[in-house]
Amino acid sequence: MGHTHIDTAALTVHAAAAALRAGRFSSVELVTSLLAAIREGNAGLNAYVWLDEEDALAQARRADAALAAKQPGALLGVPLAVKDNLSVAGQPCGCASRILEGYRAPYDATAIARLRAEGALLVGRTNMDEFAMGSTTETSMHGPSRNPAARDHVAGGSSGGSAAAIAGGLAIGSLGSDTGGSIRQPAAFCGCVGLKPSYGRVSRYGLVAFASSLDQIGPIVKDARDAALLLRVMAGHDPHDATSLGLPVPDYLAHGAGGDLRGVRLGLPREYFADGMDGEVATAVRCAVEVCRGLGARIVEVSLPHTSYAVATYYIVATAEASANLARFDGVRYGRRAAGTMSPREMYCRTRAAGFGSEVKRRILLGTYVLSSGYYDAYYLRALKARTLIRRDFEQAFQCCDALLAPVTPAPAYPFGAGSDDPLQLYLGDIFTATANLAGICALSVPCGRTGAGLPVGLQVLGPAFEEGRILRVASAYE
Asked: Are 140 and 47 in contact (CB under 8 A)?
Protein backbone atom coordinates (compact mmCIF):
# COMPACT_ATOMS: atom_id res chain seq x y z
CA MET A 1 0.00 0.00 0.00
CA GLY A 2 1.45 3.39 -1.00
CA HIS A 3 1.64 6.10 1.67
CA THR A 4 0.36 9.65 1.19
CA HIS A 5 3.31 12.05 1.07
CA ILE A 6 2.87 14.91 3.55
CA ASP A 7 4.77 18.20 3.31
CA THR A 8 6.12 18.34 6.86
CA ALA A 9 8.11 21.57 6.34
CA ALA A 10 5.16 23.92 6.93
CA LEU A 11 3.12 21.63 9.21
CA THR A 12 2.60 22.92 12.76
CA VAL A 13 2.02 20.75 15.83
CA HIS A 14 -1.59 21.89 16.29
CA ALA A 15 -2.39 21.45 12.58
CA ALA A 16 -0.85 17.95 12.57
CA ALA A 17 -2.83 16.96 15.69
CA ALA A 18 -6.08 18.23 14.13
CA ALA A 19 -5.42 16.48 10.79
CA LEU A 20 -4.66 13.17 12.54
CA ARG A 21 -7.91 13.43 14.56
CA ALA A 22 -9.86 14.21 11.38
CA GLY A 23 -8.30 11.19 9.61
CA ARG A 24 -6.77 13.27 6.79
CA PHE A 25 -3.64 11.17 7.16
CA SER A 26 -2.32 8.53 9.56
CA SER A 27 0.52 8.86 12.05
CA VAL A 28 2.48 6.25 10.06
CA GLU A 29 2.10 8.38 6.91
CA LEU A 30 3.18 11.49 8.83
CA VAL A 31 6.23 9.81 10.38
CA THR A 32 7.18 8.15 7.05
CA SER A 33 7.12 11.57 5.31
CA LEU A 34 9.11 13.17 8.14
CA LEU A 35 11.76 10.43 8.09
CA ALA A 36 12.12 10.88 4.31
CA ALA A 37 12.66 14.63 4.82
CA ILE A 38 15.27 13.93 7.53
CA ARG A 39 17.10 11.39 5.35
CA GLU A 40 17.25 13.96 2.55
CA GLY A 41 18.07 17.08 4.58
CA ASN A 42 19.94 16.15 7.74
CA ALA A 43 23.36 15.62 6.12
CA GLY A 44 23.37 19.28 5.10
CA LEU A 45 22.14 20.66 8.44
CA ASN A 46 23.45 18.18 11.07
CA ALA A 47 20.34 18.87 13.15
CA TYR A 48 19.79 15.28 14.37
CA VAL A 49 22.49 13.23 16.10
CA TRP A 50 20.36 10.09 16.61
CA LEU A 51 17.30 8.61 14.93
CA ASP A 52 15.65 5.19 15.24
CA GLU A 53 13.36 4.85 12.22
CA GLU A 54 12.05 1.44 13.25
CA ASP A 55 11.07 2.64 16.72
CA ALA A 56 9.54 5.86 15.30
CA LEU A 57 7.28 3.81 13.00
CA ALA A 58 6.40 1.43 15.84
CA GLN A 59 5.33 4.44 17.96
CA ALA A 60 3.29 5.71 14.99
CA ARG A 61 1.48 2.36 14.55
CA ARG A 62 0.50 2.40 18.25
CA ALA A 63 -0.74 5.99 17.85
CA ASP A 64 -2.87 5.00 14.83
CA ALA A 65 -4.47 2.21 16.88
CA ALA A 66 -5.21 4.75 19.66
CA LEU A 67 -6.65 7.21 17.11
CA ALA A 68 -8.87 4.48 15.66
CA ALA A 69 -10.10 3.71 19.19
CA LYS A 70 -10.87 7.44 19.69
CA GLN A 71 -8.53 7.63 22.71
CA PRO A 72 -7.84 11.12 24.12
CA GLY A 73 -4.51 12.93 23.68
CA ALA A 74 -3.81 16.51 22.59
CA LEU A 75 -0.69 15.36 20.70
CA LEU A 76 -1.75 11.86 19.68
CA GLY A 77 0.43 10.70 16.78
CA VAL A 78 2.51 13.89 16.47
CA PRO A 79 6.31 13.31 16.22
CA LEU A 80 8.63 15.61 18.20
CA ALA A 81 12.42 16.09 18.22
CA VAL A 82 14.24 16.24 21.56
CA LYS A 83 17.48 18.01 22.52
CA ASP A 84 20.23 15.54 23.48
CA ASN A 85 20.23 16.55 27.18
CA LEU A 86 16.66 15.42 27.98
CA SER A 87 16.10 11.85 29.20
CA VAL A 88 13.87 9.67 27.03
CA ALA A 89 13.77 6.08 28.32
CA GLY A 90 15.84 3.76 26.12
CA GLN A 91 17.26 6.54 23.94
CA PRO A 92 20.83 7.90 24.08
CA CYS A 93 21.30 11.00 26.24
CA GLY A 94 24.81 12.10 25.35
CA CYS A 95 24.74 15.90 25.79
CA ALA A 96 26.92 15.95 22.62
CA SER A 97 29.88 14.95 24.83
CA ARG A 98 32.44 12.16 24.52
CA ILE A 99 32.18 11.45 28.23
CA LEU A 100 28.57 10.22 27.80
CA GLU A 101 29.11 8.25 24.58
CA GLY A 102 27.07 5.04 24.76
CA TYR A 103 24.92 6.14 27.71
CA ARG A 104 21.18 5.48 27.40
CA ALA A 105 18.59 7.09 29.64
CA PRO A 106 16.87 4.60 31.97
CA TYR A 107 13.76 6.80 32.51
CA ASP A 108 11.65 9.61 30.99
CA ALA A 109 12.11 13.23 32.07
CA THR A 110 8.86 14.58 33.56
CA ALA A 111 8.33 16.91 30.57
CA ILE A 112 8.80 13.90 28.24
CA ALA A 113 6.43 11.70 30.30
CA ARG A 114 3.73 14.40 30.09
CA LEU A 115 4.14 14.74 26.31
CA ARG A 116 3.99 10.95 25.98
CA ALA A 117 0.81 10.86 28.11
CA GLU A 118 -0.82 13.16 25.52
CA GLY A 119 0.25 10.81 22.71
CA ALA A 120 3.39 12.57 21.37
CA LEU A 121 5.98 10.42 19.54
CA LEU A 122 9.64 11.00 20.43
CA VAL A 123 11.53 10.19 17.26
CA GLY A 124 14.99 11.75 17.33
CA ARG A 125 17.73 13.48 19.33
CA THR A 126 18.93 16.90 18.20
CA ASN A 127 22.42 18.39 18.23
CA MET A 128 23.58 20.85 20.91
CA ASP A 129 26.64 22.47 22.39
CA GLU A 130 28.44 20.06 24.71
CA PHE A 131 26.56 20.01 28.04
CA ALA A 132 24.64 23.07 26.72
CA MET A 133 27.79 25.23 27.07
CA GLY A 134 28.05 27.44 24.01
CA SER A 135 25.94 29.52 21.64
CA THR A 136 26.79 28.02 18.24
CA THR A 137 26.73 24.16 18.59
CA GLU A 138 30.41 24.32 17.59
CA THR A 139 31.37 22.65 20.89
CA SER A 140 29.36 19.49 20.00
CA MET A 141 31.32 16.24 19.53
CA HIS A 142 29.08 15.66 16.47
CA GLY A 143 30.22 18.88 14.77
CA PRO A 144 28.06 22.02 14.43
CA SER A 145 24.52 22.30 13.13
CA ARG A 146 24.11 24.57 10.10
CA ASN A 147 21.68 27.44 9.74
CA PRO A 148 19.02 26.61 7.10
CA ALA A 149 18.96 30.30 6.08
CA ALA A 150 22.72 30.28 5.30
CA ARG A 151 24.63 27.00 5.53
CA ASP A 152 27.96 28.71 6.27
CA HIS A 153 26.45 30.42 9.35
CA VAL A 154 25.82 29.05 12.85
CA ALA A 155 22.37 27.85 13.87
CA GLY A 156 22.92 29.27 17.37
CA GLY A 157 23.06 27.35 20.59
CA SER A 158 23.01 25.55 22.72
CA SER A 159 19.70 24.22 21.28
CA GLY A 160 20.94 24.78 17.70
CA GLY A 161 19.96 21.33 16.44
CA SER A 162 16.32 21.76 17.53
CA ALA A 163 16.08 25.19 15.85
CA ALA A 164 17.79 23.99 12.64
CA ALA A 165 15.42 21.00 12.48
CA ILE A 166 12.35 23.24 12.74
CA ALA A 167 13.59 25.92 10.30
CA GLY A 168 14.92 23.29 7.88
CA GLY A 169 11.62 21.40 7.69
CA LEU A 170 13.02 18.34 9.51
CA ALA A 171 10.76 18.55 12.60
CA ILE A 172 7.15 19.45 13.35
CA GLY A 173 7.89 20.46 16.94
CA SER A 174 10.99 20.26 19.11
CA LEU A 175 12.25 20.72 22.66
CA GLY A 176 15.26 22.66 23.90
CA SER A 177 16.66 23.91 27.19
CA ASP A 178 17.47 27.52 28.08
CA THR A 179 20.11 28.49 30.66
CA GLY A 180 21.07 31.94 29.37
CA GLY A 181 19.23 32.15 26.04
CA SER A 182 19.78 28.67 24.61
CA ILE A 183 16.21 28.38 23.27
CA ARG A 184 15.58 32.01 22.24
CA GLN A 185 18.92 32.73 20.54
CA PRO A 186 18.90 29.75 18.10
CA ALA A 187 15.17 30.37 17.47
CA ALA A 188 16.03 33.97 16.53
CA PHE A 189 19.02 32.92 14.38
CA CYS A 190 16.97 30.31 12.47
CA GLY A 191 13.62 32.10 12.26
CA CYS A 192 11.37 30.06 14.58
CA VAL A 193 9.47 30.60 17.84
CA GLY A 194 11.31 29.67 21.05
CA LEU A 195 9.82 29.92 24.55
CA LYS A 196 11.70 29.95 27.86
CA PRO A 197 9.13 29.37 30.61
CA SER A 198 9.42 30.95 34.06
CA TYR A 199 11.72 29.16 36.48
CA GLY A 200 9.62 26.51 38.25
CA ARG A 201 6.86 26.34 35.60
CA VAL A 202 8.22 23.16 33.91
CA SER A 203 9.89 20.39 35.90
CA ARG A 204 13.65 20.00 35.35
CA TYR A 205 13.57 16.34 36.40
CA GLY A 206 15.36 14.37 33.69
CA LEU A 207 17.18 17.37 32.21
CA VAL A 208 20.97 16.93 32.52
CA ALA A 209 21.92 19.88 34.72
CA PHE A 210 24.21 22.69 33.56
CA ALA A 211 23.28 25.49 36.02
CA SER A 212 20.40 24.35 38.24
CA SER A 213 19.09 27.80 39.22
CA LEU A 214 18.93 28.95 35.58
CA ASP A 215 17.97 25.91 33.43
CA GLN A 216 14.46 25.62 31.94
CA ILE A 217 12.94 23.24 29.37
CA GLY A 218 10.87 24.82 26.60
CA PRO A 219 9.58 24.38 23.04
CA ILE A 220 11.15 25.49 19.73
CA VAL A 221 8.32 25.51 17.18
CA LYS A 222 6.83 27.22 14.11
CA ASP A 223 4.31 29.53 15.77
CA ALA A 224 3.07 30.85 19.12
CA ARG A 225 0.06 28.50 19.16
CA ASP A 226 2.41 25.47 19.10
CA ALA A 227 4.44 26.99 21.96
CA ALA A 228 1.22 27.44 23.98
CA LEU A 229 0.12 23.85 23.28
CA LEU A 230 3.42 22.21 24.27
CA LEU A 231 3.82 24.42 27.35
CA ARG A 232 0.31 23.55 28.55
CA VAL A 233 1.15 19.85 28.36
CA MET A 234 4.58 20.10 30.07
CA ALA A 235 3.82 22.68 32.78
CA GLY A 236 2.81 22.02 36.37
CA HIS A 237 4.13 20.83 39.70
CA ASP A 238 6.27 17.70 39.89
CA PRO A 239 7.15 15.99 43.21
CA HIS A 240 10.49 14.91 41.63
CA ASP A 241 11.60 18.57 41.31
CA ALA A 242 11.55 20.69 44.47
CA THR A 243 11.89 23.89 42.39
CA SER A 244 8.71 23.26 40.35
CA LEU A 245 5.83 25.30 41.77
CA GLY A 246 2.29 24.10 42.42
CA LEU A 247 0.56 27.00 40.67
CA PRO A 248 -2.44 26.17 38.46
CA VAL A 249 -1.63 25.84 34.74
CA PRO A 250 -3.81 28.17 32.63
CA ASP A 251 -5.15 27.30 29.19
CA TYR A 252 -2.39 29.04 27.24
CA LEU A 253 -4.18 28.38 23.93
CA ALA A 254 -7.02 30.71 25.04
CA HIS A 255 -4.54 33.55 25.66
CA GLY A 256 -3.48 33.64 22.02
CA ALA A 257 -7.04 33.76 20.69
CA GLY A 258 -7.37 37.58 20.50
CA GLY A 259 -5.93 39.25 17.42
CA ASP A 260 -5.21 42.68 18.88
CA LEU A 261 -3.26 44.25 21.76
CA ARG A 262 -5.76 46.89 22.93
CA GLY A 263 -5.18 47.77 26.57
CA VAL A 264 -1.74 46.10 26.67
CA ARG A 265 1.22 48.22 27.86
CA LEU A 266 4.54 47.16 26.32
CA GLY A 267 7.82 48.48 27.71
CA LEU A 268 10.97 49.19 25.71
CA PRO A 269 14.05 48.82 27.97
CA ARG A 270 16.38 51.63 26.88
CA GLU A 271 19.44 49.54 27.84
CA TYR A 272 18.47 46.93 25.21
CA PHE A 273 18.55 49.46 22.38
CA ALA A 274 22.10 50.62 23.05
CA ASP A 275 24.87 51.56 20.63
CA GLY A 276 26.78 48.70 19.07
CA MET A 277 23.72 46.75 17.99
CA ASP A 278 23.59 45.63 14.36
CA GLY A 279 21.66 48.24 12.35
CA GLU A 280 19.44 45.76 10.52
CA VAL A 281 18.53 43.98 13.78
CA ALA A 282 17.64 47.33 15.40
CA THR A 283 15.49 48.32 12.39
CA ALA A 284 13.62 44.97 12.32
CA VAL A 285 12.89 45.13 16.07
CA ARG A 286 11.74 48.77 15.90
CA CYS A 287 9.43 47.91 12.97
CA ALA A 288 7.97 45.06 15.09
CA VAL A 289 7.37 47.54 17.94
CA GLU A 290 5.41 49.75 15.52
CA VAL A 291 3.31 46.75 14.43
CA CYS A 292 2.42 46.17 18.10
CA ARG A 293 1.54 49.85 18.45
CA GLY A 294 -0.69 49.51 15.39
CA LEU A 295 -2.43 46.55 17.06
CA GLY A 296 -3.46 48.85 19.92
CA ALA A 297 -0.61 48.41 22.41
CA ARG A 298 0.60 51.40 24.41
CA ILE A 299 4.40 51.64 24.14
CA VAL A 300 6.28 53.01 27.17
CA GLU A 301 10.02 53.41 27.76
CA VAL A 302 11.42 51.69 30.85
CA SER A 303 14.85 51.26 32.39
CA LEU A 304 16.66 48.13 33.55
CA PRO A 305 19.71 49.90 35.00
CA HIS A 306 21.69 46.81 36.05
CA THR A 307 21.66 45.19 32.58
CA SER A 308 25.35 45.99 32.06
CA TYR A 309 26.20 43.55 34.91
CA ALA A 310 24.14 40.70 33.41
CA VAL A 311 26.82 38.89 31.39
CA ALA A 312 29.41 38.95 34.20
CA THR A 313 26.79 37.88 36.76
CA TYR A 314 25.49 35.12 34.52
CA TYR A 315 28.92 33.64 33.77
CA ILE A 316 29.90 33.61 37.45
CA VAL A 317 26.65 31.97 38.62
CA ALA A 318 26.41 29.55 35.67
CA THR A 319 30.03 28.37 35.80
CA ALA A 320 29.95 27.99 39.59
CA GLU A 321 26.87 25.75 39.35
CA ALA A 322 28.32 23.88 36.36
CA SER A 323 31.53 23.05 38.23
CA ALA A 324 29.42 21.43 40.98
CA ASN A 325 26.97 19.69 38.62
CA LEU A 326 29.66 18.23 36.35
CA ALA A 327 31.69 16.76 39.23
CA ARG A 328 29.62 13.55 38.90
CA PHE A 329 31.04 12.82 35.42
CA ASP A 330 34.19 11.17 36.69
CA GLY A 331 34.24 7.65 35.23
CA VAL A 332 32.97 6.20 38.53
CA ARG A 333 29.42 7.53 38.93
CA TYR A 334 28.82 8.58 35.31
CA GLY A 335 30.78 8.74 32.10
CA ARG A 336 33.17 6.55 30.12
CA ARG A 337 36.24 5.59 32.13
CA ALA A 338 39.74 6.03 30.70
CA ALA A 339 41.37 2.62 30.28
CA GLY A 340 44.74 1.48 31.61
CA THR A 341 45.01 3.85 34.59
CA MET A 342 47.07 2.86 37.64
CA SER A 343 45.43 4.97 40.39
CA PRO A 344 42.10 6.68 41.14
CA ARG A 345 43.71 10.11 40.66
CA GLU A 346 45.08 9.17 37.24
CA MET A 347 41.72 7.65 36.30
CA TYR A 348 39.82 10.84 37.24
CA CYS A 349 42.31 13.11 35.46
CA ARG A 350 42.49 11.08 32.24
CA THR A 351 38.73 10.41 32.11
CA ARG A 352 37.83 14.10 32.41
CA ALA A 353 40.67 15.27 30.16
CA ALA A 354 39.58 12.96 27.34
CA GLY A 355 35.83 13.21 27.99
CA PHE A 356 35.25 16.97 28.15
CA GLY A 357 35.81 19.48 25.35
CA SER A 358 37.71 22.74 25.80
CA GLU A 359 34.65 24.98 26.44
CA VAL A 360 33.34 22.66 29.17
CA LYS A 361 36.80 22.54 30.78
CA ARG A 362 37.04 26.35 30.58
CA ARG A 363 33.74 26.76 32.41
CA ILE A 364 34.50 24.12 35.06
CA LEU A 365 37.81 25.87 35.79
CA LEU A 366 36.13 29.29 35.92
CA GLY A 367 33.42 27.98 38.25
CA THR A 368 35.89 26.22 40.53
CA TYR A 369 37.91 29.44 40.72
CA VAL A 370 34.97 31.71 41.70
CA LEU A 371 33.90 29.23 44.41
CA SER A 372 37.39 28.73 45.81
CA SER A 373 38.50 29.98 49.20
CA GLY A 374 39.49 33.64 49.03
CA TYR A 375 37.50 34.33 45.84
CA TYR A 376 34.01 33.22 46.91
CA ASP A 377 33.13 36.61 48.48
CA ALA A 378 34.83 38.63 45.75
CA TYR A 379 33.05 36.92 42.87
CA TYR A 380 30.24 34.48 43.65
CA LEU A 381 28.67 36.38 46.56
CA ARG A 382 28.80 39.67 44.62
CA ALA A 383 27.24 37.97 41.60
CA LEU A 384 24.32 36.77 43.77
CA LYS A 385 23.79 40.36 44.97
CA ALA A 386 23.90 41.66 41.39
CA ARG A 387 21.38 38.96 40.43
CA THR A 388 18.97 40.30 43.06
CA LEU A 389 19.32 43.83 41.63
CA ILE A 390 18.60 42.54 38.11
CA ARG A 391 15.48 40.77 39.37
CA ARG A 392 14.31 43.97 41.11
CA ASP A 393 14.82 45.93 37.89
CA PHE A 394 12.28 43.67 36.19
CA GLU A 395 9.85 43.83 39.11
CA GLN A 396 9.87 47.64 38.92
CA ALA A 397 9.55 47.66 35.11
CA PHE A 398 6.52 45.34 35.26
CA GLN A 399 4.76 47.77 37.60
CA CYS A 400 4.30 50.15 34.67
CA CYS A 401 3.94 47.68 31.78
CA ASP A 402 2.49 44.22 31.10
CA ALA A 403 5.43 42.88 29.06
CA LEU A 404 8.69 44.07 27.51
CA LEU A 405 9.80 44.11 23.87
CA ALA A 406 13.49 43.80 23.03
CA PRO A 407 15.95 42.28 20.56
CA VAL A 408 16.99 38.66 21.24
CA THR A 409 20.60 39.18 20.12
CA PRO A 410 22.74 42.22 19.22
CA ALA A 411 23.46 40.78 15.74
CA PRO A 412 22.10 38.10 13.37
CA ALA A 413 23.71 34.65 12.98
CA TYR A 414 27.43 34.85 12.23
CA PRO A 415 29.70 32.69 10.05
CA PHE A 416 31.36 29.59 11.52
CA GLY A 417 34.56 30.24 13.43
CA ALA A 418 33.72 33.90 14.13
CA GLY A 419 33.71 33.43 17.90
CA SER A 420 36.25 30.66 18.37
CA ASP A 421 39.23 33.02 18.73
CA ASP A 422 37.54 35.20 21.36
CA PRO A 423 35.15 33.40 23.73
CA LEU A 424 34.46 36.69 25.57
CA GLN A 425 32.94 38.15 22.40
CA LEU A 426 30.64 35.12 22.19
CA TYR A 427 29.67 35.49 25.85
CA LEU A 428 28.65 39.13 25.25
CA GLY A 429 26.07 37.87 22.74
CA ASP A 430 23.99 36.69 25.76
CA ILE A 431 23.47 40.26 27.02
CA PHE A 432 19.75 40.45 26.11
CA THR A 433 18.80 36.86 27.00
CA ALA A 434 20.68 35.97 30.21
CA THR A 435 18.74 38.55 32.29
CA ALA A 436 15.48 36.53 31.99
CA ASN A 437 17.20 33.43 33.42
CA LEU A 438 18.82 35.40 36.24
CA ALA A 439 15.43 36.93 37.14
CA GLY A 440 13.45 33.68 36.65
CA ILE A 441 10.89 35.38 34.36
CA CYS A 442 9.38 34.07 31.10
CA ALA A 443 10.52 35.16 27.65
CA LEU A 444 10.10 34.13 24.04
CA SER A 445 11.55 34.84 20.61
CA VAL A 446 9.29 35.37 17.61
CA PRO A 447 10.59 36.00 14.04
CA CYS A 448 10.35 39.69 13.06
CA GLY A 449 12.00 39.90 9.64
CA ARG A 450 15.29 39.24 7.87
CA THR A 451 18.46 41.14 7.08
CA GLY A 452 19.43 42.06 3.52
CA ALA A 453 21.49 38.84 3.42
CA GLY A 454 18.39 36.79 4.31
CA LEU A 455 19.35 36.07 7.94
CA PRO A 456 16.38 35.89 10.37
CA VAL A 457 15.91 38.41 13.20
CA GLY A 458 14.01 37.67 16.42
CA LEU A 459 11.81 39.90 18.58
CA GLN A 460 12.01 39.07 22.28
CA VAL A 461 8.89 39.37 24.44
CA LEU A 462 9.54 39.21 28.20
CA GLY A 463 6.86 38.86 30.88
CA PRO A 464 6.66 38.61 34.68
CA ALA A 465 7.19 35.19 36.28
CA PHE A 466 4.31 32.77 35.54
CA GLU A 467 2.66 35.17 33.08
CA GLU A 468 3.43 33.10 29.96
CA GLY A 469 -0.11 33.82 28.78
CA ARG A 470 0.76 37.50 28.37
CA ILE A 471 3.80 36.98 26.18
CA LEU A 472 2.03 34.32 24.13
CA ARG A 473 -0.82 36.82 23.51
CA VAL A 474 1.66 39.45 22.31
CA ALA A 475 3.49 36.97 20.06
CA SER A 476 0.23 35.58 18.68
CA ALA A 477 -1.17 39.03 17.86
CA TYR A 478 2.14 40.07 16.26
CA GLU A 479 2.20 36.92 14.08
From this structure: no
